[in-house]
Amino acid sequence: MSKSFDVVVIGGGPGGYIAAIRAAQLGFNVACIDEWKNDKGGPAPGGTCTNVGCIPSKALLQSSEHFEHAGKHFADHGIGLSNLSIDVAKMTARKDTVVKQNNDGILYLFKKNKVTFFHGRGSFVKAGEGGYEIAVAGAANETLVGKHVIVATGSNPRALPGAAFDEERILSNDGALRIPSVPKTLGVVGSGVIGLEMGSVWRRLGSEVTILEALPAFLGAADEQVAKEAHKAFVKQGLKFEFGVKITGVESGKGGVKVAYTNAKGEAVSLAVERLIVSIGRVANTIGLNPEGVGLKLDERGAIVVDGDCKTNLPNVWAVGDVVRGPMLAHKAEEEGVAVAERIAGQHGHVNFNTVPWVIYTSPEIAWVGQTEAQLKAEGRAYKTGSFPFMANGRARALGDTTGFVKFIADAKSDEILGVHIVGPFASELISEAVVAMEFKASAEDIARICHAHPSLSEATKEAALAVDKRTLNF
């Protein structure tokens, strides 16, 4: 016998679980289906982000940063250490504990908000008068009927042609988080977020890391000045980069992995490494969803086709997060999940893609929101800029981390903030002020006139806003 719900959410990642909670808050009877399992076979909601993405990678980044600080920077503070070592198994166990805390937290939130949770894989069966029939394949098979269905099935890592992930030698983000010991040599294909973060983790712990990137330049999506500053810092730390690379072959064996490629000069090169992380993007996950069973439309990339409100081609079927167009970011998925739940309730949920922040949690951190100079030049829009270096910031000096700067881009006439770009300490936290400012259509002058605590890194934000009008006070 089927169980009926006002809203059935397929997927318990950031987009799905948040959509379920918000829908429940709005008075709907809600079910959420998720198939992730922990090492004991129990439910592990939170999707890629919680289980093999955002959360565990930040845990490893924190551990590896502590190790590097202890080995290279503690002496500057008068702290002496000897016989420094890293216990990779213990570091990984801590990461797993952090993941479980987040899994359990989501299950608690479901109970608190009266969301009915089903552990298994959800798939469409058919459309009927009462809504859509959804099958749940798990330890106990179930049949649900949802008047509204929100698909939030996320994405999967894209593999190199001819080099499938074995998670032992050729690794996705999942395998990169479970390397059992520090490899002497590590290759990374792709210099995006995952490649840089995972490359940084293992480089700090002692690996010789080489990053191969197909594009001719570093971090093409970021502001050019930010990308140059970050690249300079990473090279100084010991990361090796090759740009304009074309992979021609990958061979994996007991001794490691051999990557054949042509470099930017067209020369044939071979790289031998113990392990290879492949981070060349992700693809929408509709495996087992049975979209054809109800006529759900997919695009040429396999993503679910939606309009600006996340409506699919089917009535009362919605889709959010990585499985649809737009940036594959957890916080973008969350905002879409909230917006869809509110639209189902007849409200006017809203997501502004131009104020979705981007963050790379390396050291230095990289964060930005809004447009870059290159994008504005392409539009032909007149703008002005202002920047301020962390080397002139008192708090950054006290931290011992003065790499980077804050940069503002504002409209040449109205002074409206069009973009803010940061490379440096705690950029992930500092960017929030810029997001708020842009949502309220603030001008650079507005930020320049706000009192910021002293000493704080946020003063660099104020000074960069002042620099738009060429009147910095501390540089």
Computed CA radius of gyration, to the nearest angstrom: 24 Å
> How far from one another are the termini?
71 Å
Number of E strands: 21
Percent helix range: 25-40%
Overall number of structural domains: 3
CATH topology of the largest domain: FAD/NAD(P)-binding domain
Largest sheet: 5 strands, mixed, barrel
| Mean pLDDT over all positions | 97
CATH class of the largest domain: Alpha Beta
> What is the tally of helical segments?
13
> What CATH architecture label of the largest domain applies?
3-Layer(bba) Sandwich
- Overall geometry comes to globular
Could you name the CATH homologous superfamily of the largest domain?
FAD/NAD(P)-binding domain
Strand percent estimate:
25-35%
Given as residue ranges, the uncertain stretches (5+ residues, pLDDT < 50) are none
Oligomeric assembly:
single chain
Protein described:
- The chain has 475 residues and is of the alpha/beta class.
- It has three domains: 3-157 and 283-351, 3-Layer(bba) Sandwich (FAD/NAD(P)-binding domain), CATH 3.50.50; 170-280, 3-Layer(bba) Sandwich (FAD/NAD(P)-binding domain); 355-468, Enolase-like, domain 1, CATH 3.30.390.30.
- The chain is built from 13 helices and 21 strands.
- It has helices at 14-25, 47-52, 54-72, 88-112, 173-176, 193-204, 224-237, 330-344, 373-379, 394-399, 427-439, 444-448, 458-468, and strands at 3-10, 30-34, 116-128, 131-138, 142-151, 155-157, 170-171, 185-189, 208-212, 240-242, 246-253, 256-262, 268-273, 275-278, 282-284, 317-319, 358-360, 365-370, 383-389, 405-411, 417-424.
- A five-stranded mixed β-barrel has the order 1-2-3-4-5. A five-stranded parallel sheet has the order 7-14-8-9-10. A five-stranded antiparallel sheet has the order 17-18-21-20-19, with helices on both faces.
- A hairpin with a 5-residue loop joins strand 20 and strand 21.
- Helix 1 (14-25) runs parallel beside helix 8 (330-344).
- The longest helix has 25 residues, at 88-112.
- It starts with a strand and ends in a 7-residue tail after the last helix.
- 46% of the residues are buried.
- The mean pLDDT is 97.
- Keywords: Cytoplasm, FAD, Flavoprotein, NAD, Oxidoreductase, Redox-active center.
- It catalyses: N(6)-[(R)-dihydrolipoyl]-L-lysyl-[protein] + NAD(+) = N(6)-[(R)-lipoyl]-L-lysyl-[protein] + NADH + H(+).
- This is Dihydrolipoyl dehydrogenase.
